[in-house]
Design goal:
Blueprint (H helix, E strand, L loop, with lengths): L6 H15 L9 E3 L8 E3 L1 H9 L3 H10 L7 E7 L3 E6 L1 H13 L13 E5 L11 H19 L3 E5 L7 H13 L22 H17 L1 H15 L3 H24 L10 H4 L3 H10 L3 E4 L2 E4 L13 E4 L7 H15 L4 E7 L3 H13 L8 E7 L2 E2 L16 H19 L4 H21 L7 E2 L2 H4 L7 H20 L15 H10 L2 H10 L3 H21 L8 H25 L8
Parallel strand pairs: 5-6, 5-10, 10-11, 12-13
Antiparallel strand pairs: 1-2, 2-4, 3-4, 7-8, 8-9
Helix pairs in contact: 1-3, 2-3, 4-18, 6-7, 6-8, 7-8, 8-9, 12-13, 14-15, 17-20, 17-21, 18-20, 19-20, 20-21
The structure holds arginine (ARG).
Length: about 600
């Protein structure tokens, strides 16, 4: 028995011994997954690499090594093939033993970080009082998954929504409100700052006020000036406007929470740009005092260009000539705040990749000026655009900006129809199931693409029960659940049952896929790449379905064999459920 490590680590140990015993360096003993699955399961190309050093034909080295693998614990077959590859197949008993250890381990063989890091993830980033649109969807979906993955590896992770709650949109709303309800106490000079409970608008009114005001301001110079001035007054502590701001925040945040809950996205912190404002004066003072900041045409800036830049990186803008703070300022002040309150080892920003330059400027400035410690890692994880089938940014049928709510409704409708057609779910539950499967369709559709790339959001494809889709993954999990349920209903009890050595190719292929779990998690974690987790579960689902079609599971007469299958199914289910949890969705009982 061994402490579960990744399978590759285990078999590499044996391979090293074989190299050393044959008189070669152990550094040659690197084992990888086979790129010719038709010939072998794993392979080692070390003999090729050693030819020069040992002045020997690679095939001779490979043969020497293979001779030492005859008594192997893990390999059923180790073959030297020309020009010098070592082709490997695992012993079915070894595979089964590995899987049993994995099943017994509470972390399924995943090793937790020995020195957990404190990580903050800045994601979501909705703008208060503006409707959520599909652009915000990606940040929420990707950020949530990354948060779960990093946390799963044992780190201390905090997800911060970083609300856009301090901008011009607030001035616009105040201005429009004043036009409509000039008698509100907030507009009275004598307003003392007390905060009345009832908001002067509902969420639907608020959702209408912003676009109306925004459109009007574009046409009317005076109105725009007024809104800018209102923004200025708000930001400088004008009591009546502060009170309206609080109302806007309360009403919007309640609504945002509902939306994110529907998406299974959970923030630990509901901080925003407004929270960072109080750190600005001290920060500006420091930047001036230490000589980092200088005035350029009236604006206060910090140079961040570096000699090796092959593209121009403009200075970080700290204050405009009228003294107003900017986007750069707020993000820097937020880092001051984060440093003061949480001392993160790492801050990851999940934001549209078109904002990359802004983050390059902010990161450089924060490092150079000591706002963060030199060892703090600042990472920008830029994502691409979600496009429609026409390859252009996703729009409604009428060509307008697609609101998140509407997109979700569309997917839910589609799922509802399919689920009703399948007739496996009672009508009363169909809506709930449709919402659950719909969310998987959206999230998997998004996460299965490399985050930095643009992708096409294709409702028909994403909601399909077949192919590389969320519903297909859920369908596979539901299938496993239903077999396990039937087994239990028929009086079966596989508690303590062990997975047995595979007897056929489909069974072994499934096992080989299950046991990669911890390696995949490590890669996905190291590369912050949820799309690789999607690729893994898609392969796993395929292997399971192949196995299912070729194997009589419940009608197997040999009880030991049957409970071995059940143990394998239990493990496959646990792995799949863990993975979808890391992707941020769940599976129903039926669909
Ligand atoms: N609210 C911003 C937007 O919608 C995104 C915020 C990203 N995070 C940040 N720390 N700047 O564009």
């Amino acid at each position: 028995m061994w402490k579960v490590r990744t399978l590759l680590e285990l078999i590499t140990i044996e391979m090293k011994e074989a190299f050393v015993k044959a008189g070669y360096g152990e550094e040659l003993a690197r084992v990888t997954l086979s790129n010719r699955p038709d010939l072998c399961e794993y392979q080692c190309n070390g003999a090729m690499a050693g030819a020069k050093k040992y002045k020997k034909a690679p095939i001779m080295i490979a043969e020497d090594v293979v001779a030492n693998l005859a008594e192997s614990q893990c390999f059923a077959q180790a073959e030297a093939v020309k020009p010098g590859f070592i082709n490997l197949k695992l012993k079915p008993e070894f595979v089964a033993e590995y899987l049993n250890e994995m099943a017994a381990d509470e972390n399924l063989g995943v090793e937790k970080e020995a020195e957990p890091k404190t990580v903050m993830i800045d994601y979501g980033g909705p703008n208060v009082a503006k409707p959520l649109h599909v652009g915000h969807l990606r940040s929420a979906i990707i950020g949530e998954s990354i948060k779960r993955i990093i946390r799963y590896k044992g780190n201390k992770v905090t997800g911060d929504i970083h609300l856009g709650d301090w901008g011009y949109q607030m001035g616009l709303i105040i201005t429009e409100l004043k036009k409509r309800q000039p008698d509100l106490p907030y507009f009275d000079e004598s307003f003392g700052g007390e905060y009345p409970e009832e908001a002067p608008f509902t969420i639907s009114e608020l959702e209408e006020i912003y676009p109306t005001a925004s459109a009007y301001a574009k046409e009317h110079e005076d109105y725009r000036e007024e809104a800018l001035h209102a923004t200025y007054l708000l930001q400088n502590g004008y009591k009546g406007y502060r009170a309206i701001w609080k109302h806007i925040m309360n009403v919007s945040v309640t609504d945002l929470k509902k939306n994110y809950e529907r998406l299974n996205v959970e923030f630990d912190l509901w901080k925003g740009e407004a929270d960072a404002q109080k750190y600005i004066p001290g920060m500006v003072e420091m930047l001036k005092e230490k000589g980092f900041a200088h005035y350029d045409q009236g604006a206060l800036v910090v140079d961040v260009a570096e000699e090796t830049d092959n593209k121009e990186v403009p200075p970080c803008m700290i204050l405009k000539s009228d003294g107003a703070a900017l986007y750069d300022t707020t993000d820097l002040a937020t880092l001051v705040e984060r440093e003061e309150l949480y001392q993160p080892d790492e801050v990851i920003y999940v934001v549209d990749k078109r904002q990359e330059l802004h983050f390059i400027q902010v990161f450089r400035c924060a490092k150079k000026t000591g706002i963060v410690r030199p060892e703090t890692e600042l990472k920008f994880l830029g994502f691409g655009t979600m496009n429609g089938k026409d390859g252009k940014p996703f729009k409604t049928r009428e060509g307008g900006v697609m609101r998140l709510e509407n997109l979700i409704r569309e997917i839910d409708e589609e799922m509802y129809k399919k689920i009703m057609d399948n007739r496996t779910v009672e009508e009363a539950d169909a809506r709930k199931t449709a919402a659950e499967v719909g969310l998987a369709a959206i999230k998997y559709g998004d996460l299965s693409n490399q985050a930095s790339k643009d992708y096409i959001f294709d409702v028909d494809r994403f909601t399909s029960f077949e192919g590389n889709t969320g519903p297909y993954i859920l369908y596979t999990i539901v299938r496993i659940k239903s077999i396990l349920k039937k087994y239990a209903e028929n009086g079966g009890n596989a508690e303590g049952a062990k997975i047995l050595a595979a007897e056929n190719a489909a069974e072994k292929a499934l096992m080989l896929q299950v046991l990669k779990f911890n390696e995949v998690i490590d890669t996905v974690y190291a590369e912050t790449a949820p799309h690789k987790l999607c690729a893994y579960i898609y392969d796993l689902a395929n292997e399971f379905n192949k196995f299912y079609h070729e194997t009589k599971i419940l009608s197997e007469e040999d009880e030991a064999k049957k409970s071995g299958y059940i143990a394998l199914l239990n493990l496959a289910k646990k792995v799949l459920e863990t993975c979808i949890d890391l992707l941020g969705f769940t599976a129903p009982e039926r669909m």
